[in-house]
């Protein structure tokens, strides 16, 4: 079920959207289309927007990454007609070696979708209770104080990776949540956040180097992801699941807007309840992920996870080495 209560008042929600890089187009076109029709926005062919690295406007880091694909006449898999062989199911928990069959290896949290809402996050948290499985969980904040200045990001990222290693190695954490959620307006005013793609990429690669990656599942709780490409990047760089709390909050904001209600009354937008609008949004993202998988001939999202099937354009080598090891970035950059 999708919770109907709002996280933020409209003013606070708008401020949060601005800090995460949302634009009016994202809300008025992408969210509106996905929540209203369960389909992604249809654009004309060709992308005439400036490259993110050359644009005068700031862009989310996701826009610096381009999806790679198998360049053939027909897509390797048709997600519409051959969807029966595809799956977005993911798991959370400690994974055993594929060469070692044991009861412990089957102790995992099964997710039908990589997109989680607030109720599902609460259900996962409930699994920490001994009577419900006793899955050890920990939430690491990716926010840091604005007063730390330009060097604050590097320090916060190093600290985050160190905390992740300690949590998995010493506390046996099986579900690691990386969260940039701010509790209130004051926290939004006084802190900023590590970009979610940087956070998950750095933690993912640090755990690999420490030999701990298979011991935990990573959930990214972020307000900075809303489009299909964003989720593909997060999963492609290591996330097991994503809780896009700001995206679901924006769906609520869109649904409750007088303009939306008038359009529904006039028949310009299909009548729906708020939970249906949120489910429409998730369905649109899931179908978009299936299309992305199909372009590389990948059937399972578990095979796409951590595969890094992207090319960076305008990302510097230091960032690549720390967060996106192995990703091609031909011209360097920020």
From TrEMBL:
Coiled coil: none annotated. The lineage of its organism: Eukaryota, Sar, Stramenopiles, Ochrophyta, Bacillariophyta. GO terms for molecular function: 3 iron, 4 sulfur cluster binding; glutamate synthase activity; metal ion binding. It holds the Pfam family Glu_syn_central. SUPFAM superfamilies: FMN-linked oxidoreductases. The keyword Oxidoreductase applies. This is Glutamate synthase central-N domain-containing protein. Its cofactor is FMN; [3Fe-4S] cluster.
């Amino acid at each position: 079920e999708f919770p109907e209560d709002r996280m933020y008042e409209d003013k606070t929600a708008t401020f949060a959207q601005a800090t995460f890089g949302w634009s009016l187009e994202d809300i008025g076109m992408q969210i509106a289309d996905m929540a209203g029709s369960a389909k992604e926005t249809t654009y004309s062919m060709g992308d005439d927007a400036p490259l993110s690295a050359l644009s005068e406007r700031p862009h989310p880091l996701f826009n610096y990454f381009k999806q790679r694909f198998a360049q053939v006449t027909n897509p390797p898999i048709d997600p519409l007609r051959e969807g029966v062989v595809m799956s977005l199911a993911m798991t959370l928990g400690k994974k055993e070696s594929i060469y070692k069959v044991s009861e412990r290896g089957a102790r995992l949290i099964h997710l039908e979708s990589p997109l989680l809402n607030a109720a599902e996050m609460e259900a996962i948290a409930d699994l920490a209770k001994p009577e419900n499985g006793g899955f050890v969980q920990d939430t690491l904040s990716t926010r840091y104080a604005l007063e730390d200045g330009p060097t604050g990001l590097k320090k916060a990222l190093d600290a985050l990776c160190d905390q992740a290693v300690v949590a998995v190695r010493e506390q046996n954490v099986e579900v690691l949540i990386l969260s940039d959620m701010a509790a209130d307006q004051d926290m939004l005013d006084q802190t900023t956040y590590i970009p979610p793609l940087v956070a998950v990429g750095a933690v993912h690669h640090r755990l690999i180097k420490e030999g701990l990656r298979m011991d935990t599942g990573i959930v990214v709780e972020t307000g900075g992801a809303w489009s299909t490409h964003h989720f593909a990047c997060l999963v492609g760089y290591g996330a097991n699941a994503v809780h896009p709390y700001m995206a679901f909050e924006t769906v609520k904001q869109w649904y409750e807007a007088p303009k939306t209600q008038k359009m529904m009354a006039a028949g310009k937008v299909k009548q729906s309840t708020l939970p249906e609008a949120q489910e429409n949004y998730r369905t649109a993202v899931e179908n978009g992920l299936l299309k992305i998988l199909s372009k590389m001939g990948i059937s399972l999202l578990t095979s796409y996870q951590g595969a890094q099937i992207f090319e960076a354009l305008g990302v510097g080598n230091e960032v690549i080495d720390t967060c996106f090891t192995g990703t091609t970035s031909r011209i360097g950059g920020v």
